[in-house]
Amino acid sequence: MEWVCTSCGFTRGLFEEYYWKCPRCGKPLSIRYSVRGEILSSRNTWERYRGFIPFMPEKTRGEGLTPIVAEKYSPHTLLFKLEYMNPGGSFKDRGSALAVYYGYKMGFEKTVVDTSGNTGISVALYSKLYGLESMIIMPRTAPLGKRKAVSRIGGKVVEAEDRLAASSIVEKYISDGDVYYVAHLWNPLYIIGHATMVYEVYEEYGVPDYVFAPVGSGGLILALAYGFEKLLEQGLTKKLPRLIGVQGYSCQPVYEVLHGKRIEGEDSSLADGIMVYNPPRVKEIAEKIDRSHGEVVLVGNSEIQSSLEELWQNGFLVEPTSATVYAAYKKIKNEIPGDATILLVLTGSGLKTL
Questions:
Q1: What is the pTM of this model?
Q2: Could you give the CA distance from residue 199 to residue 232 in angstroms, rounded to a whole number?
Q3: pLDDT tens-place string over residues 194-222
Q4: CA dist list (Å): 103 to 36, 50, 93, 161, 177
Q5: Nearest one of 76, 91, 90 to 330, comparing CA atoms
Q6: Domain over 92-188 is classified CATH 3.40.50.1100
Q7: Residues with Cβ within 8 Å of residue 143, at least 6 apart in sequence
Q8: Nearest Cα to Cα of residue 347 among 327, 318, 326
Q9: Mean pLDDT value across residues 92-97
Q10: Cross-strand partners of 65
Q11: Which of 199, 245, 181 lies closest to 51 in space, CA to CA?
Q12: Average pLDDT over residues 152-175
């Protein structure tokens, strides 16, 4: 197992030293390890898919193996992946379970991360599990419920003016040798951990034709691409889905890279989870979407709000960021073939935003 930089060729043993970005060129790192493609019968996510991950965390709180609700929304079959039913209320638990465990094994005593909310709850939860102190830097505009959740778990909330300010504040902690900068926007363990949801979908429904996912830092959509590619490499499937990334008009960096322009539209700040202006893997995200013959769909607050209300009325208690995928689906459904199977990833619980 080793760190690998695909930009400059840097490599180093995974457990020799932690790097949140390439020490040579500053670009995001990947992890190289053997993939066996085995799926076991365990009800523990990490045991079940240990053939797809570099190592197994010692402790679990039941993350993963979330329900899939399949329903006919004429003319399509929609697969709602209920990631908000993870222990910390979001898909982030899959990545944090691996990433925080890695920090623990590397001997760190504290964790720090900058986030709009869900990652903060997740990092605080798994840090507590391994006896690590956690400092969660959050914009003061983050939902109060998320800030309260971090504190109640035992994390220390450090407020910042906004998301960009949070990214600046975290820099003062990085040089402290006993602090593990989880760096979820950069850390490839989040991509590997999130990809376990792909194997769950595959086991139950095969490979869908389309996958809709909100895009903030982009770790989720990269994980979806990664997971389906691993299935293809292992000979478990012969096709890949089209990736539909969802962003808001207020913050559309992936759309801008993909199309070379910005589209003006309604404010979309209701979906705080995708308000990431400078995702470090933005070019990689755009390339994965383009290679899949996918697209980035932009939505605004009115579309998000109406989709949020519709989802709640149908029993999906999600947060606004999750509702963006349903809003995007409704926006382009007439462009999708009628026999298509479509995966919608519902990322976070709305109970934290009440």
A1: 0.96
A2: 11
A3: 999 999 999 999 999 999 999 999 999 99
A4: 25, 19, 15, 28, 12
A5: 76
A6: yes
A7: 117, 272, 319, 352, 353
A8: 318
A9: 98
A10: none
A11: 199
A12: 86
281-339 residue pLDDT tens: 999 999 999 999 999 999 999 999 999 999 999 999 999 999 999 999 999 999 999 99
Residue given tokens 């020490």 in the structure block = 23
Burial class (CB in 10 A: 0-12, 13-18, 19+), 155: buried
Residue 192, CB-side half-sphere exposure with 13 Å CA sphere: 25
Span between the terminal Cα atoms of the chain, in Å: 43
> Residue ranges of the domains in the chain?
68-91+189-352, 92-188
CB 132 within 8 Å of CB 111:
yes
Alpha-carbon distance of 207 to 237, in angstroms, equals 7
Pick the CATH number of 68-91+189-352 from 3.40.50.720, 3.40.50.1820, 3.90.1150.10, 3.40.50.1100: 3.40.50.1100
Q: Are strands 30-32 and 242-248 parallel, antiparallel or unpaired?
A: unpaired
